[in-house]
Design a protein that fits this description.
2 domains, globular, three-stranded parallel β-sheet, six-stranded parallel β-sheet, Rossmann fold, 345 residues, binds NADP nicotinamide-adenine-dinucleotide phosphate, disordered C terminus, 12% strand
């Protein structure tokens, strides 16, 4: 029988612990505040921002929102981000990444703008977010900056007191929950894991993080917070041959062509936005399938039912967990000594 994950339910359970933690911070005079920026032409960004703002309100985290247009002057947006860096009441900054195609639709009208232009525009924005190196304080609450991504690649993000992108944290939380509540013998670190989609928001950092854990192992400070506990909970020695593979479109086509299916992978995490990319015919029995695609799922739920052990649906899978993971990140960014608090899990 396939277990269908309930993202809303787990997110609400986590919200209870986070709410207590926020109250403890507030009693100490520490007030987490996320400043969010989104682009009004991208309706999905507006919708995610509303959901994040609602959850923040529920937990007692301040959530300040400002929207721009794709056509807004770049320097004006950069200036605004720099003002957030200088504002000591802001403890985390998130820029909601729009769809490349939406940006090209609006900005590229009548011109030759390409994905490379979009990437340059995006980097020009995220590079403004304060990090320890640039400003002596880390406000990168969604793991968007090159500095955070490099630290994830090197396996040093924990010791540098950085946080993983919220979607990466969401996926790891779901895998941890599967192990804790459904199958105690499961650990993704002892399995063959396939990640489809190689964006900086999910695929690449998730791949680096898992690869580091599988290859080197990471020393996890005892009191660093939930992200470390997730890693620890998933660490288990095993004789099984583990592997993590990251593919984009070409890589997936090649894998399917060569092997005719993806049946060598027990865990498949897909983040492409391509509807029903993964069907039941491609997967192995007892697979663990994590669908990050939105607004429609990458995984064809119907054909995978009764073959996979576990599937995260769309909606109500990774989405609500990403929202709650952003809130957990916001708390992890606060002073490290405060993360040792007990009774707030
Ligand atoms: N649930 C959440 O919280 C959450 C958070 C963030 C994103 N998302 C969703 O995740 C999806 C991806 O977002 P993104 O920002 O990562 O997008 P992105 O930057 O556009 O990346 C898409 C990736 O998918 C790959 N891809 C596209 N078509 C493919 C195919 N037919 N076969 C295999 N790979 C294919 C691309 O491969 P190439 O590299 O070869 O081009 C690329 O690596 C979207 O649906 C987005 O809405 C969900």
């Amino acid at each position: 029988m396939t277990i269908i994950f309930n993202g809303e339910q787990l997110a609400q359970q986590k919200a209870v612990g986070l709410k207590k933690k926020v109250a403890i911070y507030q009693a100490k005079g520490i007030h987490p505040k996320i400043a969010a920026i989104f682009f009004q032409e991208d309706q999905a960004s507006a919708m995610y921002t509303t959901k994040k703002s609602q959850m923040a309100n529920e937990l007692g985290i301040a959530y300040q929102v400002k929207s721009f247009s794709f056509l807004s002057n770049l320097q004006e947006i950069q200036l605004y981000i720099r003002s957030l860096n200088a504002d000591s009441s802001v403890t985390g900054i998130i820029i909601q990444k729009p769809w490349t195609s939406k940006w090209l639709e609006v900005v590229g009208k009548g011109k030759n703008d390409s994905t490379a232009d979009f990437n340059a525009w995006w980097q020009a924005l995220v590079s403004q977010i304060a990090t320890k190196k640039s400003h002596g304080i880390n406000k990168d609450v969604d793991g968007l900056t090159k500095e955070t991504l490099n630290a994830i690649k090197e396996g040093t993000w924990m010791e540098k007191q950085m946080v993983l992108p919220a979607t990466v944290r969401a996926v790891l939380s779901i895998l941890k929950d599967y192990r804790l509540h459904i199958d105690p013998t499961f650990s993704y670190l002892s399995e063959k894991v396939l990640i489809i989609g190689q964006s900086d928001l999910l695929g690449r950092p998730l791949y680096w993080h898992i690869k580091n854990l599988m290859q080197k192992g990471i020393v996890i400070p005892q009191n660093f917070g939930e992200a470390c506990q997730i890693a620890a909970a998933n660490m288990q020695t095993s004789d099984k041959k583990c592997e993590v593979k990251l593919v984009g479109k070409k890589g997936l086509d090649k894998l399917i062509e060569q092997k005719k299916s993806l049946s060598e992978f027990r865990v498949i995490i897909s983040a492409t936005g391509q509807k029903n990319l993964i069907s039941g015919a491609l997967i192995a029995p007892h697979s663990v399938l994590i669908d990050v695609g939105e607004p429609q799922g990458d995984i064809d739920l119907v054909s995978c039912l009764n073959k996979a052990d576990f599937i995260t649906p769309v909606p109500n899978g990774v989405g609500p967990m990403t929202v709650i993971s952003l809130m957990a990140n916001a708390l992890d960014l606060l002073k490290i000594e405060d993360l040792t608090m007990t009774g707030a899990k």
